[in-house]
Amino acid sequence: MLAEVKPELTGIIGKLGHLPEKQQLAFNDISEIAHLMKRVTEKHYAAAPVEKIVEDRINELLDLLLLAQSLQDEPWIADVRKRLEQVAKHSVSTNDLA
């Protein structure tokens, strides 16, 4: 398991409680790293470099942040900021390896 997704996964498990009801959760809807990993497999991005995929997602998230701010939707703003932090944290660690 990627170390970057472990905190999100353990957080989700913790929120479900001791005896959760049966349900389906799409992890790529919760973790931006999982979202980006899924996006790499999409036909639209088949030949795209990872940098382009990350850049497109950051732009999408920034657009969502502007919309959430215009609606003054604090929970949505917090969620989008968390997603941007996930991408930024992973992008910095990837760039450090180069």
Quick take:
The protein has 98 residues and is mostly helical. It has helices at 6-16, 32-40, 50-70, 74-97.
Describe this structure in words.
Helix content is 66%, strand content 0%. The chain has four helices and no strands. It has helices at 6-16, 32-40, 50-70, 74-97.
Which structural traits does this protein have?
disordered C terminus; 98 residues; mainly alpha; 66% helix
Q: Which helices and strands occur, and which strands form pairs?
A:
Elements lengths: L5 H11 L15 H9 L9 H21 L3 H24 L1
Helix pairs in contact: 3-4
Give the CA-based shape.
globular
Percent in helix: 55-70%
Query: What is the end-to-end distance?
Result: 21 Å
H/E element string? Answer: HHHH
The biggest sheet amounts to: none
> What would the average pLDDT be, to the nearest integer?
83
Give the DSSP E fraction (strand runs of 2 or more residues): under 5%
The total count of helices amounts to 4
The helix/strand class is: mainly alpha
Query: How many strand elements?
Result: 0
| Rg result | 15 Å
Low-confidence stretches: 93-98
